[in-house]
Amino acid sequence: MSLLSVRDLTVKFAMRDNTVTALNQISFDLAKGERLGIVGESGAGKSITGFSLMNLLSRPGYIDSGQILFGGQDITQLSEAEMRKIRGNRMAMIFQDPMVTLNPVLTIGQQMVETLRAHRSLSKAEAEQIAILKLREVYIPSPEERLNQYPHELSGGMRQRIIIAMALLLDPELIIADEPTTALDVTIQADIMELLLELCQSNKVGLILITHDLGVVSQMTERTLVMYAGRLIEAGPTREIINDPQHPYTQGLINALPQQTLPGQRLKQIPGNMPSLTAIPTGCPFSPRCEYAVDHCRKILPEIVRYGQVEVACHEVSRLQNTNFEEASA
Amino acid sequence: MSSLSTNQPTPSRFSRLWNSNMGYSFRRNPVAIVSLAIFLIIAIASTLAPVLAPFDPYDPAQIDIMNSEYPPMWVDGADPQFFLGTDDQGRDLWSTILYGTRLSLLIGLCAVALQAFLGISIGLVAGYVGGRIDSLLMRLADIQLSFSTLMVAIIFLAVTQAMFGSETFNQYAIYFLIAVIGVAEWPQYARTVRATVLAEKKKEYIDSARVLGFGPIRIMVRHILPNSLSPIFVISTVQVANAIISEASLSFLGLGMPPSQPSLGSLISSGFDYIFSGSWWITAIPGVVLVVLVLVINLLGDWMRDVLNPKLYKG
Asked: Which of the residues B128, B205, B212 would you substitute to probe the A interface, choosing the one with the greatest number of A C-beta atoms within 10 Å?
């Protein structure tokens, strides 16, 4: 049985005079210990997905319909108190900027002990022992001293390690990492990602990695979801998606990587911008920017269809394959 | 960094405070040093009133009406056993001022504690919960603020005095004063706290606290409140000074502490009838004490506001 199973999740935002659909019928599964990447442009709904899984959408956002089955339990139906027992305990979340996610006025030790004691009946000394153990797991040097330090005394990379340690504190089954390295510099990014991968593998923790960095996704995850304007447009094994993307948008994303361009060449960016959620075009939301779009793309919303090893929401996927094949052979 | 701090013992609480930003700025600010010194002298002397005072002004057996209106020592016709002279009932003014200051400080601090408790709780809830509850609580605060403190206090105290009779009222005057000054000024706290909560609530560490599964009360009290403390400190000093003034005004108007148990205000009031008959000291000396007390508290508040305001940091 899968650890997490999201079925037709629709999230809406109640604005003053209309409601905006931020997530539209998202469905995916995550097996125990599996690592899943969610990629897409800014505003595609990646972070909203993360917050919905925690059932922590703040007003005016709300889950309109759909199910989130976590360990067989639909968490959209749970009360706030029941949900609090899951948050931090069975499901943890890591945010983007480690400089602001720790409480500035509490020491590292106070924050870790508080987290442990909120979920388990432990004495302060026992909780501190666990905290030290977890800090050691994330390779924090001399963890005993760190407990008495305040966040401002530590560097960004060190803080992100501490945040990872806090996420692992209660041995969760799932970690949602929302762009965990965007705010860090490149060398530390690699360290943190490697650490996260190692910890997830050794502890059999499921990981949902929300990012716009396809390179990170290809190293870290087994499966990938590509989102566009609040919809899932392609899902499948990461290797397939990176090596043989089916949806024109995914192809565009991969072609836009600087590595795909020769020195001196212009980057191959996708023309146009993602539509705002208040003005999503009819038919395929990507059609205005899609070079392969034909008439019915602009009229009919494509269903998600299975194509080879991936699922993709595109009418023209089989035609695309043929044209690509012809281009390649020609 | 780690190798440095390994070999050093953790500094004590006092030396940490002394070496902090605030400690540094304090040492560089003569006004703050003098103000704190004077405040501490007044506070300690009045707390130790039963030990320091040569007479007990609450004990009728020690009061002799024949001793009334002796001038202070440096004026002709003084009695050497009464250092600052005596009041109209023959009480030693020095002892009475000590006891009165104690009462004034006590009422001021307790009233501010009550204000802070009410204001902080209401402000936290309003800011954190938001929406209708926020609007409701803040409109209540606006209504409360549109009445002046003194007016509310006068009406309340006058009504209670009439209701309970002046004997019972005098017995419980101190509680009434604390309650009325405390309740009348809570919006000051509520508004400030709400404003800082609104700013803090948006920060990511609050999101991460929610993600860790903490409940709203724990997040409010343990995560938001400690991050909103600096404006609370600043208001508190100003409010203590205000509360002492309010208490003195009410007592001066005869709605506060009774003459048998005088605070600074009722002492000033009781001397006021004699000010033109030459006994200026009964009003003037407690008046000076009141002014100095309120002044040093305000100066300390000013200094604290400068230190705790991050916008005023120079470098």
From this structure: B212
